[in-house]
From TrEMBL:
Species of the source: Geodermatophilus tzadiensis
Domain Histidine kinase per the UniProt entry, residue ranges: 359-453
Region described as Disordered: 1-28
Membrane disposition: Multi-pass membrane protein
Protein name from the UniProt record: Histidine kinase/DNA gyrase B/HSP90-like ATPase
Transmembrane parts of this sequence: 35-57
Cellular localization per UniProt: Cell membrane
GO cellular component, one term: plasma membrane
UniProt GO molecular function: phosphorelay sensor kinase activity; protein dimerization activity
Protein keywords: Cell membrane, Kinase, Membrane, Transferase, Transmembrane, Transmembrane helix, Two-component regulatory system
Skewed-composition ranges (Basic and acidic residues): 1-11
InterPro entries associated with the record: HATPase_C_sf, HATPase_dom, His_kinase_dom, Sensor_HK_TwoCompSys, Sig_transdc_His_kin_sub3_dim/P
Chief place of localization: membrane
Length: 455
């Protein structure tokens, strides 16, 4: 093994550490149960809404059907009972009017029919169950005119005062055109709405259980299926979690092995070459010593580059105070270029590894941009706690006194790609990255991340 130059600290190989799994979603019962509860709650809400709509629509449909049935009853009464007896009465058989009175009064006995009137084409009442209105006339209504034209008309509304009585509410008026001899007449039948409402209610409660019962049965059938799917999802999540853990462990081993190979191979060899050249310098002629110095500097620069590559491949431990130490290491790289860098890092509790890694990458990318583009003389890195939407958070600030970097540069795809990638990582954790000009000169890069509440 090549001896090391006294006074220079030897780079230790990376020590193994277990893969970090804090950021991984752990499989459990809560999320599937929450989804199952949401499914049940959604089903119940849909069931209630559909039941309410079914009740309303079924009531309307049932009432329309009941009105239609009442209209058919009035048509049969007018065409099969009133018209034949009225025609016989008009041909000279006056006793048929007494027969018509007897039949209609008998028909009105159950209360479903409250009044019957017969109108002529001159809008005169030829016959009425209430004799007081026989022989009277009034202006023809729209319904009466339509019936005289041959159309059966049904109208739900208040009946004339003569046809009502104090015991009746709104009635259904049905105008039925009939031909009595050579003359067109209209039989106006008033039907009580009580029977219509009863019939509509019976029909409605036949429709509602059928529709709602089918939905309830569907919901009951879906529950075991949803529970089975929930268990399958939970098993798949557990398998996926185990697979991610294995992949992560394999990736960590590969990174550690590569970093160890780089350390034990090229880094040691180049360090040995650097030490040998330093020792050889005194043995070469004076004119060639500057060349040796340049070679030593180049080799040491290569060693430093390999050390940075090792850290990129296998980053330092960022848990606990490790993030502050890692930020100091990043600052040391920039200090080697002659930039004065100050680091202020608070010890933050509850900082998860995924947050620490994103903050580390953000600071590294910002400092790389300072070295490459800012032409700055000084820079400052600050890591402090912050408040985000009323909860805990962390604020990283990297400021320099260089030439500046505006927002348009951040959006360019051909430049500062690293900053864009960092911005995407921060946004994935619910944070935000801003690149703004400094108060006087330079650029300020800030990353604000929310932290999960303790517990």
């Amino acid at each position: 093994m090549v001896a090391e130059v006294p006074g220079r600290e030897r780079l230790a190989p990376p020590s193994p550490r277990p893969p970090r799994t804090d950021a991984l979603p752990r499989p459990g019962r809560r999320r599937p149960r929450r989804y199952l509860a949401a499914l049940v709650a959604t089903g119940v809400c849909v069931l209630l809404v559909v039941a309410a709509v079914t009740v309303l629509l079924s009531g309307r449909i049932a009432r329309e059907n009941a009105v239609a049935e009442a209209q058919r009853t009035a048509e049969r009464l007018a065409q099969l009972l009133v018209a034949p007896l009225l025609e016989e009465a008009m041909t000279g058989e006056a006793e048929r009017l007494d027969e018509l009175d007897r039949v209609l009064l008998n028909r009105m006995g159950d209360g479903s029919v409250t009044s019957v009137l017969v109108w002529t084409e001159r809008s005169e009442v030829l016959y009425a169950t209430d004799e007081e209105y026989e022989g009277t006339s009034s202006p023809a209504s729209d319904e009466l005119r339509s019936a005289l034209d041959g159309t059966v008309v049904a109208h739900l509304g208040p009946e004339p005062e003569a046809a009502y009585g104090d015991d009746h509410g709104p009635l259904l008026e049905v105008y039925v055109p009939v031909d009595v001899g050579a003359e067109r007449m209209v039989v106006e039948v008033y039907l009580a709405t009580d029977s219509i409402d009863e019939q509509a209610a019976r029909l409605r409660w036949q429709i509602v259980p059928l529709a709602v019962g089918a939905l309830v049965l569907l919901q009951v059938v879906q529950l075991p299926i949803a529970a089975s799917l929930s268990r399958r999802v939970r098993r798949q999540e557990a398998e996926q979690y185990d697979l991610v853990l294995r992949n992560l462990a394999a990736s960590e081993r590969e990174r550690r092995d590569i970093a160890a190979d780089v350390h034990d191979g090229p880094v040691q060899d180049l360090a040995g070459v650097s030490y040998a050249l330093s020792a050889l310098r005194v043995a070469v002629p004076a004119p060639q010593q500057p060349t040796v110095d340049r070679l030593v500097s180049t080799v040491r620069h290569a060693v430093a580059s390999l050390r940075r590559l090792m850290i990129d491949i296998y980053p330092p431990d960022l848990s606990g105070p490790g993030l502050a130490a890692a930020l100091e290491d990043l600052a040391d790289r920039l200090r080697e270029t002659g930039v004065v860098v100050g680091v202020t890092a608070e010890e933050l509790r509850g900082l998860r590894p995924e947050h620490a890694a994103v903050l580390y990458r953000t600071a590294r990318e910002a400092l790389v941009n300072v070295a490459k583009h800012a032409a700055a003389g000084s820079a400052r890195v600050t890591l402090t706690g912050a408040e985000v939407d009323g909860g805990p958070g962390v604020l990283l600030t990297v400021a320099d006194d260089g030439v500046g970097l505006d927002d348009a540069d951040l959006e360019r795809t051909d430049g500062h790609l690293g900053l864009r990638l960092v911005r995407d990582r921060v946004q994935d954790l619910g944070g935000v990255v801003r690149v703004e000009p400094g108060e006087d000169v330079g650029t300020v890069v800030t990353a604000l991340l929310p932290l999960p509440h303790a517990g």
